[in-house]
Every structure is written in structure tokens, then in C-alpha cells.
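QA checklist item 7 of 12: single-chain prediction sanity check.
[x] sequence parsed
[x] length recorded as 342
[x] structure emitted
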Amino acid sequence: MSDGGAQKQCIYLLNELARREDIELHLLYFFPGVHDPLLNRENINIKRISVWSNYDPMNILRLRRELQQVRPHILLSWLHACDTYSFFLRRSMPSLRWVMTERNSFYVRDLRFWLRRHLGRYSDAIVSNSPQGDEYWRTADARGRRFVIPNIVQGSEVLAPEGSNTVLHVGRLEPQKNVEVLIRAFCTLAKRREDLSFMLVGDGSLRPTLESMVCQEGLSSRIVFAGFRRDVARYIAASRALVTISHHEGLPNVLLEGVSAKVPIIASAIPEHVEVLGSRYGYYVQDRNSPEECANVIELAFQDFGAADQLEFALSKLSSMTPDKVAQEYVNVFRSIADDVL
């Protein structure tokens, strides 16, 4: 339950599934985290398994003991370590059906990701949250059925204040999010436009490096690092523009939350962003490795008081991402692969 969009989406789905009378829901997890308070614990049988690492092979036996007591029809795995364990659990329990989820679309070369890709091919079904994620498993020659189900978008009831001049980034401060280029763009624009302020909500391994870059430019009072925040919706709604220039995503939660709040978005022109915002959206950063281009697009959006009007395509897509609709799609997947064991 640590910081991350995938963890938050897991909780959103659990909360909605727990509302249904046709599902008996059990949650097995290893570590608590910052998103724990979001979980509605009513109608969920919850068991924390004590482990020292996400990557201890003995976790397979620990999980198997729990599954033998519960005897579930469906095992839904979330995140990489448990996806790998689920291959062995599925093999040891013939009546079990395994549904794996894909929350991304690209992985660096790493033994853990290679092993997951190899073993995940044998799941009974793979649910991706984006067409790009589905393509990742098509090219891996996945044996089971494949589905694409979008993320859940929780509607924001926060109203944006008038006259905000804050340019905002929300997300983990990690290489995938392209935050070093983002900081250079913020520094460039801060020197050019004294009427703008900048904020980064989120934490990560690159934070010390980014703070040092800002300090060296003498802009620490203009570019603020707010750290992890639970009330992200309030920060998004209070901003004039939201910037996300990631190298790759699954279905980006922050972008969806920005669309829901009708805040203009400056985004890298990666397929995952275009899938949500549409091919005609006007504020893409085509060269996401160029701080100057990023700064220019931010300034262009800031000067256009009608920039939010370009979110019409994305807003239409959000209508299919309500908690009840997404949960029903998952239930349909469960039923489609479990008919022979129910």
C-alpha cells in the first residue's frame, strides 16, 4: 500500500468490489503504506503476511498456506512480485484461476521483470489498464485471455480558486517521470515569468538531486517540493496547469485526476497520454527531453484562458471510468474464466 498510482487503484477497486453481495473478498498483503487510510475495511477479509522482503521465495509457501484455508475461485495479483508468485500458486492449486493485472507498458532490463514476463504468459487472464499494456502481453505471447479495463477515476468536488498562478507536477520523483528535464523547464520558465510559481507533489529517489538543481539556480522560493500528500485533488484543483512529461505510463492516474478537475494539462506526447487526451490536443511536449520546449508549452497553456476547453475528448472518456462500471468489468472477467470451477 505504498505510494503509487497502482496501489491507489488497487484500493479503489477493492472498495467497490466490497460493496457487492455476489463476491466474497479476501485481501492478502505484505506491507502497509501511505494509502492504508483509503481502504474501506468493511466486508473484506484482510490478512497481512509477515515477510522481510517482497522478493523472498518463501513468500510462495506463506501465500499458499493462506490460499489453502480460503480456497478461492479467483486469485487476482497486483504488482510484480505477487504476479511472479502467482504462477507457482496457480500450478499447485488446479481449481484456482489466476487473473494478473498490468499497470504499465514498458520495463527496463531487469531479471525480475524478465521473470514476470515469462511466467505471466501462463495466467488465465491479463487485465491491462491501457492498450499499450495489452500490446506488451500480446508480443509476449500470453496464453490466457487478455482484457483492457481503464482505471477508476474518483470525481473531484474541489473547486479551483480564481487567479491561481501555480504550475504543478504530481508524481513519484523517479527517472520514469522525466523529472530532471521537468525541473530544468521549471527553472527556465521561473526566470522568464516572475508571475508564476511551481510546485512538485510527491517523493522519490531523485528528490535530493532536484532540490540541489533548484538551489543552484537560486529558485528555492519559487519552486517548492511539497512531498507526498494524501489530498492531491486539492493541489490539482488549486493549480493553473498540471505538467506530466513521463517517458512511459500505464493509464496515468494524475492525468485523469487533472482532467476530472478540468485543469489544463501539459503532457509528453507518449501513446498513453494521447490515448486519454486525444490526437488533437494542443498542449503536448513533442520532444520530452527538451526543457526549453516544455517551458514554451507550459507558457502557451498558461496564456490561454480557454485551455481547459481542449479537455472535452478526455472528459468524454472519463464517463466509462466510474467505480461501479470498472468493478463490473472486473466481475465480468472473473465470471468468464471461472465458469468451469463455480
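[x] summary fact logged: Residues 323-338 form the longest helix (16 residues).
[ ] second reviewer sign-off
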